[in-house]
Amino acid sequence: MRALALLVLVAASDAGAGHVVRVEAPPSREVVVPAGEFVMGIDESDVDELAQNCRNAFERHQPSAFPVGNGMQTTTFCDMYKHELDGMIDKIQLDDDTVVDRKVYLSSFAIDRDEVSVADYRKCIAGGACELDPLIAGDERYIRDDWPLVNVTWEEAQSYCRWRGGRLPTEAEWERAARGDDRRTWPWGDAERSNDFNHGMARVSAMRELDRGGGIPLQFLGDADPSDGTALIAPVGRYPWSEGPYGTRDQAGNVAEWTADALGGNAQNGELGSGYDGLSSVNPRRDGRSTDPRVVRGGSWRQPAFLARANVRDPYNILYAPDARYTHIGFRCARSL
Question: What share of the chain is helix, strand, coil (3-state, %, to 5)?
């Protein structure tokens, strides 16, 4: 899925010989993921590690208590995340106590190589199919033509993809494009390589105190980490060495990405989400209600690196309402083939 090189033979009449000129053709906008089966989710042995990563990043100084259930019991943010991770384990126990892999079959689809940029979205506005709001509703520091579009709601992302003749990828499509069929941890393989993609770091405690309040408790997001070579958001495709198995870029980090799926679960009962239980093993998708939070994947420029793994969800999903805007969430499009 690399860029194609065209070899053009140019006649040199004065020398009576020819020479070869290499002309680079730009990579296609989309990559194709063939129909097939893959194992979706995380290994049971990953749960404790990821939960500890959460505690190290967000609760090192003081765990935050959250009320859950009708009895108003409390739990911590990272304990809630561990509950969600338990629902993402890539094993299923059958009625006879047999344990098998959670295999998912997907029909073939195409998915964008890169995240949708501000320049891409401007074209949709010019075509009369997209709203101007994402460009004017948030901090102008994040509006640069070569950067991924942020401050975009889930509905606006869907409208853009429809204008392109596509849709948002399902969570299963997003994960397979990111990790392929070999159960890799990151789009490029199993080694973290934290300086090779745009990620963030945990907030210092003083900044956490200043940021309390708002739709997402910002003390649980973090700050940009310039050690990866980018101060804030990176231009789309800036990290080609983080390419996934089918040729996608920036599925780890840069901006987190909306998917088509509703999160599921019922926050009023103290559930962060219902994992993958009850989903079909063929082209799974959870539509949910129009107001349900939406699944976001891939980590971002202001979140710790471990959240950019190809097979984990964002722990803040319960707060990602489809009509909300965030400076760390963008999207890419997909379409069925």
Answer: 25, 25, 50
